[in-house]
Amino acid sequence: MSCDKGSDPERVATPPARGPLKFRVRMASDPRLLPVVRSAVSELAGVCGFEDGQCRSITLAVDEALSNVIRHAYKNRCDQEIELNCQAKSDCLEFTFVECSEAADPSRFCSQPLDGSALGGRGTHLIRQIMDEVCYERLPEGNRLSLKKYLPGGKAKPDRK
Amino acid sequence: MKTATREQTGTTIVDVTGDIDMGTSPGLRKTLLESLKKTPRLVVNLREVRYVDSSGIASLVEVLKEARNTKKRLVLFGLNKAVHEVLELTRLTKVFEIRETEEDALRA
Question: What domains appear along chain A, each with residue ranges and CATH number?
C-alpha cells in the first residue's frame, strides 16, 4: 500500500505585517557612542523618506541633544544612562530622551540669540532651528526631552511670534 | 578623529580626518591651539571631515579668536556639504576664512 501524501499545500507568501517603525536605545552617557547613534538615526530618517540634507540635520539635532544631556545633565560623567526612543509616527519622526539627573533649567532649552563670538549655546539653537517641536518635561525621576520633525509633506513648523 | 600636521612655506597645515563631535573636539582644539602658537598662519584641511557638531564649531571659533588676538591667520578649506550646512546654521560662514582647495588656502 502506498501512501500518497499529496502535494504540499500551496504556500502564498505574505509580507510581514508592518508595525510601527521604532527603536529604543539604553546607552551609557559616553561620547564614544555618539557616532553609533548618529548612524542609526541617519538611517531611520532616510527610511522615513527624508532627503539627504534633512537626514543630516536631524542627525545633528539628535547628536546635539545627546551631547547636552552628557555635558549638562550628567556633568560629563560617562557612566550614567540615557534612554533614547526613536519612533516614526503617521506625521512625524519623534525622538525622546530620558535621563535621571536633577531638574533641568528650562532656560537651557531656550535658544539664545547667536553671538558670533560665543563659544557655547549653539547646540540648543541648532536643535530648535532644525526640529519642528521641542518639548521638555520634568519626570519624577529625571527629565524628558522630545524632539519632533514632521515628515515630508507633513504640517509646517508653526510660525514663531 | 585624527589629525596630521605638516609645514609648507611659512604655513602650518593640519589635516583632519573623521567626525568632530563632543568626544573628539577637545583633542582638535588642543592640536590647533598648539599649532597656532608656532606659526603665523594656520590652515585646516577639512576635506576628510564627515561630520561636525556645535562643539567642533566652538573649538574652531576658539582657535579663530586666538588667531585674531595674536594677529595670526586661520584658514579652513575642503568643507563638504555637511560641514558647510552646520556653519550656515550657526551663521559663521562669513566669520571664518574659507577656501575650496589647499592651493587657494595657501594663496589666501
Answer: 29-110+120-150 (3.30.565.10)
| CB contacts, 8 Å: A53 with chain B | 81, 85
Q: Which cell numbers hold the place of A110?
A: 531656550
Interchain contact, B81 vs A114, CB within 8 Å: no
pLDDT tens-place string over residues A125-142: 899 999 999 999 999 989
Contact B54 A122 (CB under 8 A): yes
Q: Give the residue from B17, B21, B29 with the most A CB atoms within 10 Å of its CB, the best one to mutate.
A: B21
Grid coordinates given for A70: 552628557
User: What pLDDT is recorded for position A141?
Assistant: 87
Which tens digit of pLDDT belongs to each residue from A58-91?
999 999 999 999 999 999 999 999 999 999 998 9
The interface predicted TM-score of the complex, written ipTM, equals 0.93
E-strand ranges in chain B read 2-8, 11-20, 41-52, 73-77, 97-99
- Mean of the pLDDT values across residues A18-24? 83
Domain that holds residue B13: 2-107
Q: What is the CATH number of the domain that holds B95?
A: 3.30.750.24
Tell me how many residue pairs between chain A and chain B have CB atoms under 8 A apart: 62
B29: its cell numbers? 582644539
